[in-house]
Amino acid sequence: MARQQTRPVVTYDETSDEFWGDEYPPVARGLLTSAVSCFASKGFNATTTRDITAGVGLSPGALYVHFPSKEEVLHAIVRVGHQRVLEAMTVPAAGITNHDPASVVAELVRRFVIWHARYHTVARVGQYELSGLNTEHYELLKAQRQTISSVFRAAVTAGIDAGDFDVEEDVTRLVRAIMSLGVDLVRWYRLEGTDKPDELADSYAGLVQRMLGARVGD
Q: Which conformational region is residue 217 in: left (phi greater than 0), alpha (psi within -120 to 50 degrees), or beta?
């Protein structure tokens, strides 16, 4: 396969080849990063394998050395993206488990929002290009999403049970509203904008605490 001149892959966020982890070799990582850029700018259906491979200076057939199909590329992006979200929320969670429920929920919101701000391009693909997934991969995605929402559900339920949240709304609706804050920002967020990830996360965490009627600092 002919090696062409490598072109920079633009994702408009902090996604890099290392984002994909050791599961994929360097060329496959580059293809995934290129695909994120293509899917975000052109959509899954309008993107060709030539578009993806051209982003890393490879011939069109190079994609099939690493992925059986374009759909498998999308699935890899969506799967790894959701896996990274869960890791961001739960890997360091031991440090907040002994805090009051309001602080726990606020910290989870911060992590959720910061991740979606820093990786808003890959997150946008993971939210708006799901129609390209086959049935099996979509079901796997639903399981990942349920795992993420269960982290929020457990934290909100703990606060309600402890009497620290003054709400009468259904927990499922509350969790959807909380998660929508982080998910929705991928439509408009840009790292070069005025809202920095940490600042946006603090603002949204405060909004959620007020929405829950949380007792803070008692």
A: left
Distance CA 20, CA 33 (A): 9
SS3 assignment, position 2 = coil
User: Which residue intervals of the chain are DSSP H helices?
Assistant: 26-42, 49-54, 63-66, 70-90, 101-118, 120-128, 135-161, 171-184, 197-211
What pTM was computed for the model?
Answer: 0.90
Question: CA angle, 156 as apex, 150 and 160 as ends, to 5°?
Answer: 140
pLDDT of residue 128: 94
Q: Please state which CATH number belongs to domain 72-211.
A: 1.10.357.10
Q: What is the location of CATH 1.10.357.10 in the chain? A: 72-211
Task: Tell me the CA distances in angstroms from 92 to 68, 98, 102, 150, 154, one per residue in order.
Answer: 35, 13, 17, 17, 16
Single-letter code of the amino acid located at 215? R
Q: Which two tokens stand for residue 147?
A: 């795992």
Q: Which amino acid is at 3?
A: R
Spatial distance between the Cα atoms of 44 and 88, rounded to a whole number of angstroms? 26
pLDDT digits (tens, 9 = 90+) for 168-206: 889 999 999 999 999 999 999 998 889 999 999 999 999
Residues 176 and 45: their CA atoms lie apart, in Å, by: 28
How large is the angle between the packed helices 70-90 and 135-161, nearest 10 degrees? Answer: 10
Say which residues have a Cβ less than 8 Å from residue 161's Cβ, sequence separation at least 6: none
Portions of the chain given CATH number 1.10.10.60: 17-68
DSSP code at position 212: T
Partner residues linked to 3 by β-bridges: 58
